[in-house]
Task: inverse folding
């Protein structure tokens, strides 16, 4: 809006050449004065108001305050619904104590394994990604555990990629000698969904009867893996 085109009586003029129109005869005091007692003096445009009559002199500041208040309320709502420790909340899997879902994957060496083919064995299913930093942190533990149980036919470790590329999985498995790693393919994606994984790394222990007896969301330790196996075999 061009404020120069407005005068105190609210009349709008077509151009700048007629910035002021003489007021009607007798208007104001002394007959020749304007609305404020001085000829040609314009009224100040009224400021926008908010409830209560206070002028909004700094609209952007009000917007920022409202946005900050909204963010604070949202933070409280999320805290009440998620909990103070999301990692601790996520460690409790809804599958614990229930039969493991059906799944099948193909290891990088071509071996096909599935929930059906592994019945009667203790199985550790580890979901991971090559770019996952916590997965890299737990890798030495998995390597040691895998080497220790390499000659035990009753205990199996299967590493299923959650969301990676075929090339990245092959390269990581080859460089780190991950003989337990499965291919990144449609079967791996289906297994990820079947277990309802929430992130990586995430590990499940399945007993010989096919029931999930342990789960961990986060990097594993040797102690945790041994406890999972003992529980699955009924000795822990």
Result:
């Amino acid at each position: 809006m061009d404020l120069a085109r407005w005068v105190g009586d609210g009349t709008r003029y077509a151009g700048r050449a007629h910035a002021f129109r003489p007021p009607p005869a007798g208007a104001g005091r002394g007959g020749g004065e304007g609305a404020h007692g001085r000829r040609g003096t314009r009224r100040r445009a009224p400021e926008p108001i908010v409830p209560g009559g206070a002028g909004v002199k700094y609209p952007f500041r009000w917007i920022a305050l409202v946005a900050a208040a909204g963010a604070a309320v949202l933070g409280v709502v999320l805290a009440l619904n998620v909990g103070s420790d999301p990692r601790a909340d996520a460690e409790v899997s809804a599958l614990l104590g229930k039969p493991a879902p059906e799944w099948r994957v193909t290891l990088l060496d071509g071996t096909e394994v599935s929930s059906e083919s592994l019945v009667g064995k203790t199985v550790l299913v580890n979901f991971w990604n090559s770019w996952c930093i916590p997965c890299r942190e737990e890798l030495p533990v998995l390597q040691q555990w895998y080497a220790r149980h390499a000659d035990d036919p009753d205990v199996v470790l299967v590493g299923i990629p959650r969301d990676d590329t075929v090339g990245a999985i092959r390269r990581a498995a080859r460089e780190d000698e991950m003989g337990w790693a499965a291919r990144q393919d449609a079967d791996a994606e289906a297994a990820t969904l079947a277990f309802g994984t929430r992130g990586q790394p995430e590990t499940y222990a399945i007993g010989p009867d096919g029931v999930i007896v342990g789960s961990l969301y986060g990097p594993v330790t040797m102690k945790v893996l041994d406890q999972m196996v003992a529980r699955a075999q009924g000795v822990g």
In short: The helical segments are 59-82, 86-91, 133-148, 166-175, 186-194, 222-232. The first helix runs from residue 59 to 82. The first strand starts at residue 104 and ends at 106. The mean pLDDT is 77.
